[in-house]
């Protein structure tokens, strides 16, 4: 089935131009606007993806844990480097305070390990020597004080990060012994007694731990807030820059509008008739879009009404040209889609040479559709400016 494209729709968009220089000037402005629109679209995507919210991810990025691409972007965010430096200083200070706490906690361990009943827990359990064949079936994670001491002294980053981790392993030493040995056994009684003594000393030491944890939490919250403020300021700047770019683009659109309005000829009666006929060939979706175009310059026109009475002769030249552009593009896409659908049944055989042609046609269709979309965007922008200027009082 042939595509229902009317010849009248193939009239160039600048048919009123008198020479090649004017046409080239028009094309140059359109190309510039197209590139500018693409650039703004990409920047708008970046702004939308820019999420200046309080999060641990942002705090981590301030410590230098983000990937290379993010680091390149962050270099251009004012104030971020300063916040990163302050965050590093806070982290270093907090780590030092926690190290001091662990050193103080070491005195408690010394008191426990010097107890006369501490000797069974100082080294790993000699499972083979004592013939404890079921030990690893009962005990999931063996622990002893020599292992704890090695973890506390580790310098390669594998050691304990805070006091609570040490406390948990101390408890594990005694609970393992109580779990594996019978309640009346000497080792069980020794472990239970030492665990009670440890818990008493831990309760006395706990307020210091809670105070440090609270202080660190407050500092991290403050750091997140500062990072958020920096990102929000950067986001606001990006939005302002794009707003300025859009204002500049509006100026160029105004210049383009003047050029088009002055150079484009009026649509003839015959073209209006063919335009009206072409509108009836549109799909319901495209027809709705066409009626929306009419409604943009005619506030009283109700495009969504059940019955629409469209008077082609009553429309402005700007509206008619926009309808021509839209209908031409819509019927071309509609016709190519119909052709592709009718040929689809013959493309199942992989050896059919037309498969490659159809693939190429689809690629061409996508390219044409993108080009047509860009033309419609520019046309819509022109009409918007026309409508805005038509509301100004005559000088």
TrEMBL record:
Region (Disordered) location: 48-95, 337-395
Biased composition (Basic and acidic residues): 68-95
Domain NET: 257-338
SUPFAM superfamilies: Bromodomain (SSF47370)
Biased composition (Low complexity): 346-371
InterPro entries given in the database record: Bromodomain, Bromodomain-like_sf, NET_dom, NET_sf
Keyword terms of this UniProt record: Bromodomain, Transcription, Transcription regulation
Residue ranges, compositional bias (Basic residues): 385-395
Bromo domain ranges (all copies): 113-188
Protein name stated in the entry: Bromodomain containing protein
Taxonomic source organism: Trema orientale
């Amino acid at each position: 089935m042939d595509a229902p494209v009317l010849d009248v729709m193939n009239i160039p968009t600048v048919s009123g131009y008198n020479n090649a220089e004017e046409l080239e000037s028009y094309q140059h402005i359109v190309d510039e606007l197209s590139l500018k629109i693409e650039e703004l679209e990409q920047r708008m995507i970046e702004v939308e993806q820019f999420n200046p919210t309080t999060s641990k991810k942002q705090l981590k990025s301030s410590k230098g844990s983000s990937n290379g691409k993010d680091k390149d972007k962050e270099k251009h965010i004012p104030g971020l480097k300063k916040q990163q430096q302050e965050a590093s200083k806070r982290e270093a200070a907090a780590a030092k305070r926690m190290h001091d706490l662990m050193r103080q906690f070491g005195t408690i361990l010394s008191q426990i390990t010097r107890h006369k009943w501490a000797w069974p827990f100082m080294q790993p359990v000699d499972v083979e020597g004592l013939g404890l064949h079921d030990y690893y079936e009962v005990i999931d994670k063996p622990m002893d004080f020599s292992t704890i001491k090695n973890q506390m002294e580790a310098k390669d980053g594998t050691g304990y990060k805070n006091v609570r981790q040490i406390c948990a392993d101390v408890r594990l030493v005694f609970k393992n012994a109580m779990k594996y040995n019978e309640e009346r056994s000497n080792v069980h009684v020794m472990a239970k007694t030492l665990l009670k003594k440890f818990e008493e000393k831990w309760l006395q030491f706990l307020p210091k731990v809670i105070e440090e944890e609270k202080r660190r939490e407050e500092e991290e919250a403050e750091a997140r807030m500062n990072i958020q403020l920096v990102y929000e300021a950067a986001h606001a700047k990006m939005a302002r820059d794009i707003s300025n770019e859009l204002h500049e683009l509006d100026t160029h659109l105004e210049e383009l509008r003047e050029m088009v309005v002055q150079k484009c000829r009026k649509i003839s009666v015959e073209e209006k008739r063919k335009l009206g006929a072409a509108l009836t060939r549109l799909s319901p979706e495209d027809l709705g879009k066409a009626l929306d175009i009419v409604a943009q310059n005619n506030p009283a026109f109700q495009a969504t009404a059940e019955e629409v009475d469209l008077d082609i002769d009553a429309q402005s030249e700007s509206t008619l040209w926009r309808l021509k552009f839209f209908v031409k593009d819509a019927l071309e896409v509609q016709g190519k889609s119909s052709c592709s659908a009718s040929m689809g049944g013959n493309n199942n055989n992989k050896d059919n040479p037309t498969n490659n042609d159809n693939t190429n046609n689809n690629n061409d269709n996508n390219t044409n559709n993108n080009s047509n979309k860009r033309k419609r965007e520019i046309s819509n922008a022109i009409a918007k400016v026309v409508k805005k200027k038509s509301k100004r009082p005559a000088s």
